[in-house]
Write a structure and sequence with these properties.
The complex is a heterodimer of chains A (295) and B (152). Chain A is of the alpha+beta class and 295 residues long. Chain A is built from 12 helices and 14 strands. Helix content of chain B is 34%, strand content 14%. Chain B contains 5 helices and 5 strands, in the order ββαβββαααα. The chains are: A alpha+beta (295), B alpha+beta (152).
């Protein structure tokens, strides 16, 4: 690793001031699982690391207006175990549980993972399907973005120098909804996915017609992404198996996977179709249970 | 300069900013029990506890431990008395070549600290980040179950 200044401010304002001072020469660091690895590989050479580890107030999981808000410094492990998340958005708690190993989940943070923007990560997949928004701060300013607008490219985000993610806010599902997350990985369970799919299905009150379905996909493009083609197949329709298969086929058009040791691009495209059908089937069944008042 | 408490003893250490916690433990403090295997947080050979939580010390900066408490394999035995996990690994053959063992033992201790009576599935989920290239996993799981039973 190359040398850098290391600062560990005790307040968010102070952290933002240092980040502004260094501009694009600075990197914010929290859990360090991604950043320290990249520093060790000399993929990054920042002049300054601004640790957010001593910044108070960003490590809470809390209920807000119709949403659950996860502070950026909540660890994956804390998110996985948070009673509020397990009760209100169990699909998201389960998604966090599928990341790496417990040791890594003790370190990596919710906000850090989003800022890292690795297209192979699991949480963005479910967060995209749930319509999450990120809260961003910089010295003297704040803004909010739909998560889909945060991801700009391979390890690239819309964050400007001096900006940090402070929280992600995840809307609760409407009534008559179900959700699912499938991480398809033929190698070891702590690996990245070959393809990861999250689906939500919201039914009309008759329990038959689909009001809205959302699909998040991971490991099959430059960024985590939604599948508008598959979603369009389902909105307003009466669901059945052949329609779900059509949605799976449509999802192929939205992905652009890279060939790697987790599968060729062609294989990942095929598995996208298969896993989208499975995820939709599970979400649909959960939505029907919700309509019947069964949890 | 960072000040960290390792196995109950406070240390002031002058470290460059890029020092990993693992290198600080091994080279600045001479605690060579924790090993570097993969160097990217996957294998678990460098497992230590930071404020009681198991982490990969190879991808943690030493600066992360400033003002914090670190527990390493060297801190488990009390004088000549081995920690129940250490004793169980000996009694039940929980190691072969031994390179992964410090990490296995520290991880297992962390498990029993949070869950004194884990099921086999819980043991396997907790330990899946600690790789053993001798593939002595059955004996490791057996050792941890025995340690759980041996603890008062």
């Amino acid at each position: 690793m190359n040398a850098f200044d290391y600062r560990a401010p005790r307040s968010l304002d102070e952290a933002l001031a240092i980040l502004q001072e260094y501009g694009d020469e600075a990197k914010a660091i929290a859990g360090g699982t991604a950043l320290v690895t990249m520093l060790r590989q000399r993929l990054l050479r920042p002049a300054c690391l601004v640790s957010l580890r001593e910044v108070p107030g960003c490590d809470r999981v809390e209920a807000t207006n119709g949403a659950v808000r996860l502070g950026a410094l909540v660890t994956h492990r804390d998110a996985e175990l948070a009673p509020l998340l397990r009760e209100r958005l169990p699909v998201l708690a389960e998604t966090f549980r599928r990341v790496g190993t417990i040791r890594i989940r003790h370190m990596g943070t919710v906000g850090g993972a989003l800022a890292h923007a690795d297209p192979n990560q699991d949480p963005p997949v479910t967060l995209l399907a749930l319509g999450a928004r990120v809260e961003i701060r910089q010295s003297g300013g704040r803004r909010e973005l739909p998560l889909a607008e945060l991801f700009r490219g391979y390890y690239e985000t819309a964050l400007e120098p001096g900006e940090v993610i402070t929280a992600v806010s995840v809307p609760l599902l409407p009534p008559a909804s179900g959700a699912s997350f499938i991480k398809f990985l033929p190698r070891t369970v702590d690996d990245y996915a070959t393809v990861a799919v999250a689906a939500t299905v919201t039914l009309e009150s008759d329990g038959e017609r689909c009001r809205e379905a959302r699909i998040g996909l991971g490991s099959v493009g430059m960024t985590p992404l939604r599948s508008p083609s598959a979603e369009a197949q389902l909105a307003g329709q009466r669901l059945d198996e052949s329609l779900l298969r059509a949605a799976g086929d449509a999802a192929r058009a939205d992905v652009d996977p890279l060939s790697d040791h987790r599968g060729s691009a062609a294989y990942k495209r095929e598995m996208t179709a298969v896993m989208v059908v499975r995820a939709l089937t599970q979400a649909w069944e959960a939505a029907r249970r919700a309509v019947r008042g069964v949890r | 300069m960072i000040r960290l408490t390792v196995n109950g003893t406070s240390h002031d250490v002058e470290v460059p900013s890029y020092r990993t916690l693992l290198d600080c433990l091994r080279y600045d403090l001479g605690l060579t029990g924790s090993k570097e295997g993969c160097g990217v947080g996957v294998c678990g050979a460098c497992t230590v506890l930071l404020d009681g939580k198991m982490i990969s010390s190879c991808i943690a900066l030493a600066a992360f431990a400033d003002g914090r408490e670190v527990t390493t394999i060297e801190g488990l035995a009390e004088d000549e008395r081995l920690h129940p996990v250490q004793q169980a690994f000996i009694d039940f053959g929980g190691f072969q070549c031994g390179i992964c063992t410090p990490g296995q033992v520290v991880a297992a201790k962390a498990l029993l600290d949070t869950n004194p009576n884990p099921s086999e599935a819980e043991i396997r989920e907790w330990m899946l980040g600690n790789l053993c290239r001798c593939t002595g996993y059955y004996k490791i799981v057996e050792s941890i179950r025995a340690a759980a039973q041996a603890r008062p």
